[in-house]
Amino acid sequence: MKKRVLAVILAGTMAAGSLLGCTKAGQGGGGAAKVKDDGTITIAVLPKMKGENYWDATKNGAEEAVEELTAAGKNVKLIYDGPPQDQATNQKQVDLLEGWIAQGVDAIAVGCVDASAISPTLKKAQSQGIKVVTYDTDAEPDARDLYVCSASETGMAEALVENAAAELQAKGYGPDNPANVAMMGQTKTDVNIEAWKDNILKLLETDEYNWMKLQDVESDIYYPGADEVEVQAQAATLISRMGKGADKIQCAFGNTSMTGPALASQYEAASDKPSKDEIVLTGVATPNAVKTYVLDEDNPFKVAVLWNCMDLGYLAVQSAYQLAVGDVTADSAEITTERLGTSAIEEGIVQLGEPLVITKDNVEDFDY
After folding, report:
1. Where does residue 73 rank: exposed (0-12), middle (13-18), buried (19+ CB within 10 A)?
2. What CA–CA distance (Å, rounded) separates 327 from 346?
3. What's the pLDDT tens digit per position in 267-320?
């Protein structure tokens, strides 16, 4: 596979800047939302959690979408709320959704903690004429109108594995010197993260990458949840298992925006750590979360993979607004926005773009 190259278009002052199966989107609610007497469209945005770098960046994009719509003469109200980082549960999300349904908002955009568990509440919203957008992580396809996909599940896996393999080979690993790998997810209900994991495992079975071996799915795939303390603790445990030798792990993937930086942080904090020349750390992360590690010659975390977080939040709100006023539907083939131009919609899935590969060459170009 050739090296993945990013082409990202950003508007304004920005510096350079989970496809879960193409199934039919929900059709609940039908038609455009009923516009309030004063013409206001109220959009409620529900992230998986508040107070975390990645989700804060998507919030910025959501707010920028509202600013753009307002400047164009649209009457839009944004409600933004979510559970705190240590309480990122489906029940907390459902509690907020029930309040918004009772309030009669026009559209909801939600990053789902648990795809199946949240779907009945989203269907309830649809039944009352509320348009439903999922972003970052999907719900059941018939429980939303559109899903804004941050990056394809295969594209994310390929970017992570391709770059990790190149780093491992530069450190002497390959078909004649296999490398053991491990992964950190979040929970088994995170549909997109689990899809990346599954696609990574498929790639590790191919002739090109079968020298990268995940020996035991029970012990070598970690699920720390969303609590920062537990994430850091499990990352420290994984770092302690890394080093040179058949009984050690040579490559660790942090498949969430919390676990990627945690691996780099715990390597730095470890009193007894393997040589940076013997291991590879990589994963999903915002540029700011890993900047110091990527630029630190003594830290083995050198490549992160993500997408433009602000654009994700922006497109989620734009999709919610255009659904609410009837400019797009679940059957539309594309959506047009001032900032991103035309974005394709494939069977209810709005495509944000290709993964962003973050290295020492571009990590300082971003402000999130």
Report:
1. exposed
2. 16
3. 999 999 999 999 999 999 999 999 999 999 999 999 999 999 999 999 999 999
Where do the DSSP E strands lie in the chain? 41-46, 76-80, 107-110, 131-135, 146-149, 179-184, 212-213, 221-222, 251-254, 280-284, 301-306, 334-337, 341-346, 349-351, 356-358
CA–CA gap between residue 136 and residue 293 (Å, rounded): 25
Please count the CA atoms within 13 angstroms of the CA of 164 that sit on its side-chain side: 34
The whole-angstrom separation of Cα 275 and Cα 124 is 54
Dihedral sign for Cα atoms in the order 144, 150, 154, 157: negative
The pLDDT assigned to 20 comes to: 32
Read off the pLDDT band of 53 (50, 70, 90): confident
Residue 186 makes CB contacts below 8 A (sequence gap 6+) with 193, 223, 224, 225, 226, 255, 256, 258, 259
- pLDDT, position 237: 98
Say how far apart CA 64 and CA 68 lie, in whole Å. Answer: 6
